[in-house]
Amino acid sequence: MSDMGLSKDVIYDRICQLIEPFNKKSVPLTPQTTFANDLDFDSLTVMDLVAAIEDEFDIVLPLNMLPDLETIQQVTDAVEKIIKG
């Protein structure tokens, strides 16, 4: 699904859609929503989400990048950077 024309808004919306099945507490999603504190995701849930994001956008998120991705906005920025090269 890699597409050079994806806007940041489209990427953000798709990531939010991917988060919803994991959002057991129905936390409202904003760019500043954190995975550990707000969504209470454990490491396994984060890895499942990463796999879903990688499949959705046909990319690979480098493992060394993952510790720095704490909010939805940070993930959106990382995905956009990888897609646009």
UniProtKB/TrEMBL annotation:
SUPFAM superfamilies cross-referenced by the UniProt entry: ACP-like
Protein name, entry field: Carrier domain-containing protein
Keyword tags: Electron transport, Fatty acid biosynthesis, Fatty acid metabolism, Lipid biosynthesis, Lipid metabolism, Phosphopantetheine, Phosphoprotein, Transit peptide, Transport
Lineage of producing organism: Bacteria, Pseudomonadati, Pseudomonadota, Alphaproteobacteria, Iodidimonadales
InterPro entries (UniProt xref): ACP (IPR003231), ACP-like_sf (IPR036736), PP-bd_ACP (IPR009081)
Domain of life assignment: Bacteria
Classification via Pfam families: PP-binding
Domain Carrier as annotated: residue spans: 9-83
Gene3D superfamilies: ACP-like
GO terms for MF: acyl binding; acyl carrier activity
Organism: Iodidimonas gelatinilytica
